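Hey, resending since the last one bounced:
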Amino acid sequence: MEKRILPFDWRKRLENTEYYSVGNDFILLEKPVIIDILDYPFKLNVMLSIICLKGTMKGSVNMQSYVLEAPAVTVVFPDQIISAGQFSEDFSGLFIVMSKQFMTDLSVNVKEAMSLNFTLRQKPWIPLNERGLNSLVRYFGIFKEAMQTTENPYRREIVRHLTVAFLYDLGFHFNLFTVKGENSRREMLVEKFLDLVQTHYKEQRELSFYADKLCLTPKHLSKVVRETSGTTANEWIDNHVMLEAKALLKSTDMTIQQISEELSFPSQSFFGKYFKRCTGMSPSEYKR
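The structure tokens again:
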């Protein structure tokens, strides 16, 4: 049987908690029960939107740390890796959870509607002005009202169409933080590079592979990535590999040998040296 990173079991966190739902596909919560305080990475198997009304939330999504301060909104997509979630004592927020299947059934490309661009990769949350906050809170209220009308046979379709509008509204707010012109063209290049890394990091760790895919020289690609993101291209590649390795070490019962094979290392020894170079400790030390 194939072994993978164990996704965060969010359904267990809903026990004894008031929530509104359409089956297991679309859920509304008003308490921070989805994200535990964890010291190791785990994958989320749903799309999670958090509207922060008061207080702060700290966390890390796909290697990017953040401190979300109200009023703000953050979005985590399925298969992104979260390594922590901490809420201030005065935190108040609204949580919208969508299953992968629900997202697939939507009539739009979710990431396109959300404008999942370089800005969101660098900062997985955005602050909201009063108008933006009120808009998203209204959507939450409309969702809640529609979901409470359980006798309506069209309830799921109503929620589905409301979700499309909600995602485009989110996309609008994220777009406000996109810089136009030459800088955005450079960011688009970095975005393409990061998409390639996300797709191929398990098999390809050489910068030349990604440069060839983008029809660039490794030197030019390295310069653009470093100047635009503040992180070198090789560090981005290493970070993706290490994030997956850490999640596999902590969240599965796979052996170090199996993990080295999963990540296409020529041997366990080579994987161990690579891991220690990146983290300062051996895989077995990290697993303990």
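The beta strands are 20-22, 26-29, 42-43, 46-54, 56-61, 64-69, 72-76, 81-87, 92-99, 125-127.

Sorry for the duplicate.
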